[in-house]
């Protein structure tokens, strides 16, 4: 009887130990997503050209496709533009400027370890011509916050910039 009881206790201990190892492996897999930061950074940096091409073509649709519906744009000396319609209205004035040329270059992209948010720092240069045909060049810095979408794409949720001068 003692031997049977000891065998049962030992067997129960082995089963509980095996179950614990199995559960801990499952929990470890479920809580540690793969590290996709390098690919995510590359995907966000690839959008630099989308901005430049969108502004060159004065294509508001392609520019706004980079933003979530509820995104916010903070531009100097302007009220916050919340939502794609308001952001589009803010960009329309710039798109209508004569002689518009824009460059946009990422200086850094930091993707969160969880892989759902990223912060991009960039420089920009906007060239236009004034009413007298004289060139006007504005340079500055931008910070954008991106959120990964359910389809794996990235969309801007917050955008702000400041002139260098």
Q: Which helices and strands occur, and which strands form pairs?
A:
Elements lengths: L1 H30 L5 H9 L1 H10 L3 H5 L2 E8 L6 E2 L1 H12 L5 E11 L5 E13 L5 E14 L5 E10 L2
Parallel strand pairs: 1-6
Antiparallel strand pairs: 1-2, 3-4, 4-5, 5-6
Précis, in short:
This protein is of the alpha+beta class and 165 residues long.
Describe this structure as you would to a colleague.
There is one protein chain. It contains five helices and six strands. By secondary structure, it is of the alpha+beta class. It has a six-stranded mixed β-sheet with strand order 2-1-6-5-4-3, with helices on one face. β1 and β2 form a beta hairpin. The chain is elongated, with a radius of gyration of 26 Å. It starts with a helix and ends with a strand.
Oligomeric state: single chain
Number of helices: 5
CATH structural fold name of the largest domain: Nuclear Transport Factor 2, Chain: A
Provide mean pLDDT, rounded: 86
* Assigned CATH architecture of the largest domain: Roll
Q: Kindly, what is the distance between the CA atoms of the first and last residues, rounded to a whole number of angstroms?
A: 89 Å
Number of domains: 2
For the largest beta-sheet, the strand count, sense and barrel status come to:
6 strands, mixed
Q: What is the CA-based Rg, rounded?
A: 26 Å
In what order do the strands lie side by side in the largest sheet? 2-1-6-5-4-3
β-sheet strand percentage? 35-45%
Global structural class? alpha+beta
For the secondary structure, the number of strands is 6
Task: Provide the CATH top-level class of the largest domain.
Answer: Alpha Beta
pLDDT under 50 segments (min length 5)?
Answer: 4-24
- The coarse overall form would be elongated
Helix content: 40-55%
Secondary-structure element order, N to C: HHHHEEHEEEE
């Amino acid at each position: 009887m003692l031997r049977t009881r000891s065998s049962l206790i030992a067997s129960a201990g082995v089963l509980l130990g095996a179950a614990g190892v199995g559960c801990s492996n499952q929990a470890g897999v479920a809580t540690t997503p793969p590290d996709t930061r390098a690919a995510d950074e590359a995907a966000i940096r690839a959008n630099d050209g989308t901005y430049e091409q969108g502004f060159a073509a004065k294509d508001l649709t392609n520019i706004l496709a980079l933003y979530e519906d509820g995104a916010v744009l903070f531009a100097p000396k302007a009220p916050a533009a919340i939502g794609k319609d308001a952001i589009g209205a803010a960009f329309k004035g710039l798109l209508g400027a004569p002689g518009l040329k824009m460059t946009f270059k990422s200086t850094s992209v930091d993707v969160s370890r969880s892989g759902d948010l990223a912060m991009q720092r960039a420089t920009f240069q906007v060239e236009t011509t004034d009413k007298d045909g004289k060139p006007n060049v504005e340079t500055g810095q931008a910070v954008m916050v991106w959120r990964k979408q359910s389809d794996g794409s990235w969309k801007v949720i917050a955008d702000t910039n400041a002139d260098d001068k």
